[in-house]
Structure formats: C-alpha cells, structure tokens
Specification:
By secondary structure, this protein is of the alpha/beta class. It has 15 helices and 22 strands. The strands form 6 sheets. The chain has a 7-stranded mixed beta sheet with strand order 14-15-16-13-12-18-19, sandwiched between helices. Strand 12, helix 9 and strand 13 form a beta-alpha-beta unit. Helix 9 packs across helix 10. The longest helix has 21 residues. It starts with 15 loop residues before the first strand and ends in a 9-residue tail after the last strand. 53% of the residues are buried. The N terminus is likely disordered. The structure holds 1,4-dihydronicotinamide adenine dinucleotide (NAI) and magnesium ion. The site of magnesium ion has 3 residues, from loops.
Amino acid sequence: MAVARSVGKSVGARPMWIGGKRVVGSKDRVVDVLDPSTEEVIARVPDATPKEVGAAVAAARAAFPAWAATTPQERGRVLFRIAEKVRAEAAILAETESRNSGKPIVEAEFDINDVATCFEYYGGLATKVTGHVNPVPDNALSLSLKEPVGVAAQIIPWNYPLLMAAWKLAPALAAGCTCVLKPAEQTPLTALMLADWLPGLGVPDGVVNIITGFGETTGAALVNHPEVDKIAFTGSAAVGKIILRAAAEQIKRVTLELGGKSPNIFFADADFEAAIDGALFGVFINQGEVCSAGSRVLVQRKIYKHFVEAMTEKAKRIKLGPPLARATKMGPLVSKEQYDRVLGYQAIGKKEAKVAIGGGKATGMKKGYYVEPTIFYDVPNSARIAREEIFGPVASVIPFDDEKDAIAIANDTPYGLAAAVWSRDIYKALRMVKALRCGIVWVNHMQPTYVEAPWGGYKQSGFGRELGPWGIEEYLETKQVHINLNEAPIGWY
Ligand code: NAI
Ligand code: MG
C-alpha cells in the first residue's frame, strides 16, 4: 500500500463531509496524505468505515427527492455559484493540487480553470434538458421525459483530482442526482476544500457527500451499497472490472473511464517541429499520468531515425523540479506505489527495446518520487511497454511503413481511449480518423480537452461518455409516457 496507514498526530486532519456535517472518522482508520516531492505527510484524512459510507449514501438518498424537485434554474444557479467560488479560490486550490499531486503549478492552474468551466457549462445545461414528443401512430400523445437516476457513487483518481471531481459532480447535480464522491486516497485535499464551501453556496445538506479512504475499503463499500443507483468511475481497468461485477448485483448503472495505451501517429509529411513538440507533450504532460497519454509513438519509417533523435534532444530540456516552481515542467509521480510501478516498467522496457533517453529514477533530486522522462525506441507492439498502461513519463516509439501498417498497429491494443494523427495530407488524416477504434481522435495535436466535447473510450477503455450533453445523459433515465386521446373503450373483449 502506497499510503501508510497511521494513527495519531494530527497533521492537519481533514474531516469528511456527510449529510451537511463534518465527520472526523475513527482514530484507527486514517490515511496519510503526502507531498510526493518531499515524501512528507501534509494531512490526514479518514479511511471511512462501512457505517460512514452507509451514512453518506443514506444522506444522499434522503436529499434526493427534494433536490430532484428543485427547478433546473435553481440547480443551474447553484452550479454557477460553485464555479464562481472556485475562480475566487483558484490560487489556493491550484497550490494545494500541485503540492498534493506533484503536478507542476502551471498545469494545476489550467486544471482549476477547467474545474470552474465545467461547473459553468453544466450550470447552463441544467435548463436545456428536454424530453421528446414521440410520433406514435395512434390517437395518443407519446412523450419521453428525462428524470435523474438517483444517488450517484463517484470514484475518482489522483491525476486530475479536482477536475475529475468536477467532471463527476457537475453533470450529476445538473441532472438532479445526489452524490457520494470518493476522491483517490492519495489526493483528497481539494475535494475536501470544496466540501467546506458547499453550504455557503446553497448546496442543500446531503446533496453532495465527500468521503475519503482507500479503494479496497471505502470504495468497495460505496460500490456495493444497495442504495446506490449509479456508479461513475475513473481509474484502472483492474478496478473497473471489480466495479462492473459488483454492480451486477443490483443492476446499477455504470460508466467507466479506464485509461489506455493511446497511439500518437506521425506520418512523414507532418510538420516536423510541431510533430516533435506534439510527441513530447502527448506523453510527458502531467508526468505522463494521463489516461489519454500518447504512450505509443508511431513514426513512419522514412523519418523514424531523425524523429527519435530530435525527440530525444528536445526531451533533454524537460525541467524536473519542485511542483510549485513556475519553471518546472515535470514534477514527481503521485506516490511511492506509482513510482515503483513506473520504475518497474522502465526495467522491463530496457529488456524489450532500446533506450533513447532516461530509463530510471531521476538523478539530482534528493527526495521525492521523480523519474526520468524516458523514451524507448524500436519497441515491438507486442512488448509489455507497448501494451500495458504505465501511467508515467515513458514513451514507446514504434516504426511503421504505411497507412495500412499504422492502422493495424494503432488498433492492435485492448484499449481504445484516444489517438492522434499528424499529417499535412487531409485525405490520409481523415481516413485515419475513421479507421481508428477509439473514442477521441486528435489531428495535428494531442490532449486538448473541452467540456463541450465527448470524452470516453472504446473497448477496454470503458464505456459511457463524460462532458458535453453526453455527460448529463449518463445521469438521466428516460421515462415513456403514453396519453390516450380516445375517449371510447378499447373494445377488445
Ligand atoms: P485505482 O483504479 O486503484 O484507483 C482509482 C480510484 O479507485 C481511487 O479512488 C481508488 O481508491 C479507487 N478504488 C481502488 N480499488 C477500488 C475498489 N476495489 N473498489 C472501489 N474503488 C476502488 O488506480 P491506482 O491503483 O491508483 O493506479 C493504478 C493504475 O491505474 C495506474 O498506473 C494507471 O495505469 C491506472 N489509472 C488510470 C486512470 C485513468 O485516468 N483512467 C487514473 C488513475 C490510475
Ligand atoms: Mg489501485
């Protein structure tokens, strides 16, 4: 377990938020929260007991009828107030996020802006949820109405802590659902800050509950709770499978975002300088701890050698450093667990392929979970470093001959979250867009993400779509209403 269980001294112990009350949890179930750049404990949060999880679900259940009955206008206004508060507190939120997750402060600032934008978007969308009139052939009025699913259990990862909370909470609240959110055990701090502000922003007690703890305890208790109607999860494929099995018991609604092994594909006719930048940005942003990381870099053989050299040369410039330093381009990985995992893959990679740069822990950093930005090349697509999600700054560069070859390699993966294609040939680029089996395709860029556009994967990257109108749909049921307009009896018997 990456995060040590420990009892006692309160390094800023943070309570949970359940039914409009601060809940400190029990003394013998505590999670240490670290600064991954210093390895120091910066806070402690409860590892919620099943009873506390039950209290959170009960609070969400009790709050559901009244919240579902509020007008969409009122729910929208609540979301706008949350967005406004996030903007007002952006500096402290970004600093906390950066310190707790290890991501560079400049990236954390972008994240917090996106958090506010997400609440604004769904604040606006709350009043645009409409049903349909169905064109049935009888003398009747047939309607479909949209209604909130109920109590949503939302389990999120540590790579974009508050942003993932926003992606989950905003559409659910707009739809009229109530929520029990569990942040990752490594990064609960910004979600708990948000919890502190909720009563002042007009969020009724019980509508949002934030519980903390380990996945195997708190997370599992939440997923298995019979009063949960829907589970929204972002994280590993392994846990996604556990959740899917658990959800079967009550046929809970489930959406899963499970990461991937996304190809970033470079044709010889791409703008070379832009391509090099795009290859590095695609895989090294946020230390590579990105579900859509372009971790397989597919390069056409005509430019392959030159590409690997140029990418390597530019990678030397990536500045590792303390997350809060504005010049830092890469911070530490989030936890010891993730650090060990990435070091493990670097060791595997050295046996499976050639090293262009990196391949180990970062030298020159006294403390912290820093690893070197690493580029492997001549990687067979059958290699583990080409098939398994590493979730760290590790690129696997793979050569290809032509379009057909690129498609075959790109799609030869159990995952299907994202891909990017770089070419100046619009015909070829668009053929690739159609051929790639994944939920997101960028052309001549990789990673820009917008709340207006759908996010989610094919294949083992999960199912369901977040963001945009797709995101709110996942929190809505559709009710068919048939209104007979014939006043006469049916006349069947
Ligand atoms: P994880 O999937 O174990 O954790 C994600 C969330 O799920 C956390 O909130 C955790 O507490 C919770 N969780 C864990 N086990 C659970 C269970 N049995 N029931 C309910 N909730 C549970 O991810 P972890 O261990 O932090 O990272 C392992 C790998 O997962 C990474 O190396 C990466 O490959 C992948 N990952 C993918 C992410 C994505 O954005 N798709 C995000 C984080 C990790
Ligand atoms: Mg795990």
